[in-house]
Design a protein that fits this description.
The complex is a heterotrimer of chains A (about 290), B (about 325) and C (about 400). Chain A has about 290 residues and is mainly alpha-helical. Chain A has helices at about 1-35, 40-55, 60-85, 95-115, 140-165, 165-175, 175-180, 185-215, 220-235, 240-260, 265-280, and strands spanning about 130-135, 135-140. The chains are: A mainly alpha (about 290), B mainly alpha (about 325), C alpha/beta (about 400).
Amino acid sequence: MIASVFGVLFDGFAYGMLLFILSVGLSVTLGMMNFVNLAHCSFAMLGGFVTVTLTNELGWPFLASLPLAFVSAALVSVVFERVLYRRLYRASDLDQCLLTIGIVFVSVAVAAYIYGTIQQPLNLPLYLRGSVSVWGQSLGVYRLFLIAVSIAITAALVAALEYTRFGAQVRAAVDNQRMARALGIDVDRVFAITFALGSGLAGLGGALAIEIVGLDHAFAFTYLIYVLIVVAVGGLGSIAGSFVAASLLGISDMAGKYYFPELGAFLIYFVMVALLMWRPVGLFGRR
Amino acid sequence: MVTSSAVAEPQRYLEAQIRWRPAEIAFWLATLLPFVLTPNYLVLASQIAITALFALSLDLILGYAGIVSLGHAAYFGFASYAAGLIAKWGWGEPLTGLVIAAAAAGVLGYLTSFIIARFRHLALIMITLGLGLLLAEAANSASWLTGGADGLQGVRMWKLFGVFQFDLYGTTAYTYSLAVLFVCFLVARRLINSPFGLALRGIRENAIRMPAIGAPTRAHIRKVYTIAAVMAGVAGALLAQTTETVSLETLSFARSADVLVILILGGAGRLYGGLVGAIIYMVARDQFSGVNPQYWYFWIGTLLVAVVIFLPNGILGGAARLVRFFERSRA
Amino acid sequence: MRKALAGFATIAAAVLAVTSAHAQQAIKVGVILAYSGQFADPSAQMDNGIKLYMKHHGDTVAGKKIELIRRDTGGIAPDIAKRLAQELIVRDNVDMLVGFALTPNALAAGDVSAQAKKFMVNMNAATAIITTKSPYMVRTSFTVPQLNQTLGSWAYKSGIRKAYTMVSDFGPGHDGEAAFHKGFKDAGGEIVGAARYPVANQDFSAFVQRAKDANADAIYIWTPGGPQPAAIGKALAERGVDPKKTKVLGQGELTSEDALKNMGDAGLGIITAFHYDYNHQSAMNAAFVNGYRDAFGRNPDMFSVGAFDGMHVVYEALKKTGGKTDGESLVDAAKGMTWESPRGPMTIDPQTRDVIQTVYIRRVEKVGGQIVNVEFDKIDNVKDPFKADMKN
């Protein structure tokens, strides 16, 4: 049925867009400085909880809370970068993993302490609920919103990368860090700003994720795997890579569930392993 | 032409490494203390020994060959189920069951080693993760075989050597686990302090360079990976036999992540790192989950961050630095 | 000097005697729950249920003081649960084991209870076979077949002829599927399709679309508590499945208080089978709910009532045995016990040591501005059908 194929593509693409927003920051920072930040999803979780607190406790409208989710995650990440991460840029992969996993553990415990271990409820504004009928297809309004936001973000990122000086510096630093330094680019500063932006995007992603996949204290763990899959499959340091990988994974996950429900999560892991075996650096990765 | 002195240097180095240091002897004697000091904690002690063995197996590939694996629990869980099923289907003899289950894990390790040896960096990490997750999914789906989320039921072990029953107090369990751990440790120790072990360290430091000096990198990686899989399998089989139960958790990402954390905490590449890490982690978890169960993650997270900042080579690395510091101040 | 020593020894002996006698006066109850991790909230509710019972009935039974010793399994961890059970018995000398939110943990501890001959009260884990693991175990919660097979036969009686089922792909989900299929088909219904979704699934739109495409009279969904019920409700709304037209059936977790809060109006019309809701109208329940709200600031749920009734069994059994704590006496005292619980009437089946209770059929409706489960039908004295079939 063409109708259901379209439905699967639409839902899968929307899910993929969510994964994209969550992962793009990690892909770029990993590609730039090779810093393995496994706590990336803790920032996402932070953004989600900021939104939950603002909308439930303080009565803010959902849309207004989104920029704050972004900003709060970005600010907190700056603090972490200054205080902790900076010391470990030269350290081994394993040490970076250990430090950031420690941060994940602490963030999960803190979230459980403050918010409990239940699912966080979110009251979406009425205009974002339900579905609309487009060409006889029932499309979820929230998913349309998600796709719109992601495309806007992608456009902004690409534009910034291509048309601004800062973007040029980012591209240079990802391509060849040493050369960029030699040319006088302050790579550490570029990295710090990129890291803040990436974490902010993760926070935004966390806020947007609540309606689709729910938010609880263990979010930082649960989504880590999916984000790592997107980053590995897409290729480090590549926005296009994250976009394509996230869409691919979102759609194949949805298609798998619709056509082969018994396979379940099998498909997404299988696709990942197969893709990585074929192209170990990821679809758009270099090296 | 290789002159005799060129061979003698590394040989002397290896011989020096093989000699037993007093600290090591003290460590192994200390493992006998629980029988005397804490006889009510032997079940915990046996689970610590099993985790230590699992961490040791990971050390072989991570600490010595530099392969970061996020899916090592696959071999642990696979052998756990194998050992459980062997007992469930009627053959409850512990030692033979252990050997068969570990061999099964070894076969699985051998087959996957062909994939593992071909990749490095992030791709390797994600592939090990993916393979582990796939196996866990398969085990969940095959609930007719594995019991699914309820775990494997009906595992009944016969008496060890026909004499020692696995009892409520855990005496047999701890003796068994400790003995097996020690034997495997001896094997690992011999392996590491051999030319093969040196080659592994070379691969870890610079995998591209190694073939230039004649070391067959891929073959070595496959060999050590298979051995590590067998050892992880031994640990998994021990768990199944001493607890007479197997659950999906033995194959989970959580278990792979836990053992990685334990190894790095103790210090990878130091043979005893996994053992020390296992003792500290599991004792801490046991104590904390009594006092304030919710906040175990908070404390372990803080501990990890502290260890990384202040003790970058794990606890044993820090201890080694301390020892060198004292030696230098004495000299 | 000798006299002083003798005097001292006598006093010491007396003190020891008094304290050890005092210690003997305590009844130690080992509580094994998953206090940390994913199942922390259900475990907290169960712990609250235990605390509330002890608050209402005091902490002394048959002249002895009840002492709780709590242990955390951290989630699904049968090897840890088994070790904790062993340690509680060997190290802490507990007289009985209670708690158990999760099936694998209950099964593992069951082995220990049988080996050590200790009384065990399973206050939640719902897989049917659990009570067969130890002759000293009773259950005070429910079993999956008890609820779902009953729902299946009720569905047919209420006019549904074709049903599509979708369940979570793990043990309890498979049990729910099997039980519903049996109840529904035995009554004469037709199952037009059955799907299993991955345990960790968050996005249900694909599965709901499949269900909708099957064009059945009803869609039966089995899901554990947590994030999924709300996600399912939202997916149903998004995909245009109207519970008022196509009946949506499930086990009570689908419409738990949390889930309903998250689903909002999307949940209206969903029909579930369950053994307890805090809105159940009875004097006993009103007292229970008010006491619970006063003490803990939230509503009780099935976890709370399972633990509450579990403690009831502990107390009444001890009263019957006059304080004797060996497994044999306690379980014999528990068999056949029948009482009025906040959920309604319940009995411990003397043959299977499992729970016999009323299964309520409820529909989600808006009452006074709140979205709640409203009981509109019930089946009394339901035994666990799975074990009943095992005998035949």
